[in-house]
Amino acid sequence: MVLNGLRICWGVRVKGSKRLRCGEEVKDPRIIDEVMRLISEFMNRVERHRDILLSELATRLTSQ
Predict the structure, then answer these.
(1) Residue 1 near residue 32, CB atoms below 8 Å
(2) Span 31-56, pLDDT tens digits
(3) What does DSSP say about strands 20-25 and 9-13: parallel, antiparallel, or unpaired?
(4) Claim: this prediction has a pTM higher than 0.85
């Protein structure tokens, strides 16, 4: 299912790699709602701690 430009699907392991590729698309509305809730929570936390995250990144870049 494509929702707000996102394609939500079950991950399938790529042979010879640790990466996953998109397998069967998720159709269960409960799973889609949970995925959207988790993405939203992640985005809220990044926004809330943006200053700390960016300051640590700047510190790493200047120390190299």
Answers:
(1) yes
(2) 999 999 999 999 999 999 888 878 87
(3) antiparallel
(4) no
